[in-house]
Design goal:
By secondary structure, the protein is α+β, with helices and mostly antiparallel strands. The chain is built from 7 helices and 15 strands.
Length: 309
Amino acid sequence: MPTENFRRPDRSLYFIAFLVLSLSAGIRAVAQGPTPRAVPTLVFMTDFGTVDDSVAICRGVMYSIAPDVRIVDLTHQVTPFSVLDGARFLYGATSYYPPGTVFVVVVDPGVGSTRKAVVVKSKRGQYFVLPDNGLMTLVQDRDGIESAREITNRDWMIGAALSSTFHGRDIFSPVGAHLVRGEDWTGVGPELEVSKLVRLDIAPAKLDEHGLSGQVIATDGPFGNLVTNISGDEFLKLGYARGQAAHVTIGQNGMDIPFVRTFSDVPLTKPLLYIDSRGRLGLAVNQGSFAATYGVKPPVAIFIPRANK
């Protein structure tokens, strides 16, 4: 090819193309906006109720340390002093939250005593700030515990003199806020042996050739349904079909109750057995309270025989 017929591309064209691409990228970035930062989540549960200012004070402590925190109130209506109820609610909710979530739980009948205040990290990567009194029992059985530490670092607490009766304000709330702010949780205090954490004495349901023995462990909120420690899968091993009645013994009292799918499958004010939304066997009265109707106060034993074929 003759050199006189060869023309190099105009460099200005390269520059114009580069400018157009850069402007396009900038316009897209402006339109899309910055990538939103994940909002740190702290889940808060107590038996304080909401009649007085206790919950609001604790939330104020958290916000003063971690202003950007998103606080989710799991409940503040745990049955007063009931560690078992607290453990049950914690078990029911934690699986719906992602790793990294911080749970602050204050159901603390032993406040001010020798019981330890701890931070526990589960094998799901969630953190629990609470008294060492058995609240972790059910979560531990399902998720496992990676490690635990006693809360001793006074820099993570508030107040020159700690109250002997309000550790929710002085210890658990500020520690939870420091964690959700991203501080290294190992700074909270010395490591504890997981095997030495306090556990609730909850006997598991037992299935044998005669039937299924378990416990009524709670009532379901304001409705009076009975909550048991019997899984739906274990109950189904007894062989009952939908619509079939089972002879259920609660404490010393026996009665025939149909196993159904939902409340409206029986007439109004009639009892039923069902698998509840948490996958456990429940007992209810259609538009009534099983606990009030039959005078049941947990904890109490329950027995269901195998189905007659």
